[in-house]
Amino acid sequence: MVASRQPDDFVPPGRKPGGSGAGPDAPPAIEADHIDCGYGGDPILRDLSFSVRRGEIFFIIGGSGCGKSTLLRHLIGLNRPSSGDVRFFGDSFLEADAVHRRDLLRRFGVLYQGGALWSSLTLLENVALPLEEYTTLDARERAELAAFKLSQVGLAGYESYYPAEISGGMKKRAGLARALALDPQIVFFDEPSAGLDPITSRKLDELILQVRELLGTTCVVVSHELDSIFSIADRVLMLEKSARGAIATGDPRELALSSPDERVREFLSRGPRPGGEKGFDTAPRPAH
């Protein structure tokens, strides 16, 4: 169970993300404004614009090589867009000075693919790293808070374990505990289900839902897993390699049924689904 925290823009369970909980004039959690993303030469993604509402579970989807991970790297500051701007809660991340940029960095966490844990550190030491970097807490306070964050993701009692001593699913949970260490308003997830069995993947999806519902956290998930997309996504942004950008944004169920772009319908309807259905089922989702 994830303990509750209610930030100023908290979206309570049962209210649609982006609703009145954030105020009608509040800026989105994230705005990408005509950004070009790449690594030199021709951009992989061109003139891309989209926004993520506060309290939303927003998926970035698409086939291999379409630029999902590239976009993530440019959103979190590992790479700088060659043009355009990225704003968090209305504040430019790219134009911020060093002090303001550091403040913005504290407002989001990242769960990297594989967990990206330091193998030479215990789980508690891994989770305590951002606390050491960004807070004035002493060693005892950092250890207490890190242990609490591990308990939030179901890893109480594993504080002294090393990454090599735990399963892949537990590594993802430990990585999420570290991403949550500073109580961020946004958490980015890079292929969280990669390498996990279906049951473990489903449990991680449920944990992402808990983080959103109880903490009001905005979640941005890079994934191509249909089970996760149809289980927990409020909206998706679909990238396409030949388009060098987005070809659809919206509720994945609506897109699978009625997108005018055949590529979108095909992507969201591929492969067998539980119960023998193709693509997705039409049963309504539980209210958030």
Could you explain how this protein is built, in words?
Strand 4 (83-88) and strand 5 (91-92) form a beta hairpin. The protein is globular, with a radius of gyration of 19 Å. The chain is of the alpha/beta class and 288 residues long. It has nine helices and ten strands. Strands 6-7-8-3-9-10 form a six-stranded mixed beta sheet, sandwiched between helices. Strands 2-1-4-5 form a four-stranded antiparallel beta sheet. The two termini are 17 Å apart. The protein has helices at residues 68-75, 98-105, 123-134, 139-152, 168-179, 198-215, 226-232, 252-258, 262-268; strands spanning 30-37, 45-52, 57-61, 83-88, 91-92, 108-111, 186-190, 218-222, 235-240, 245-250. The longest helix is centred in the C-terminal third of the chain and has 18 residues, at 198-215.
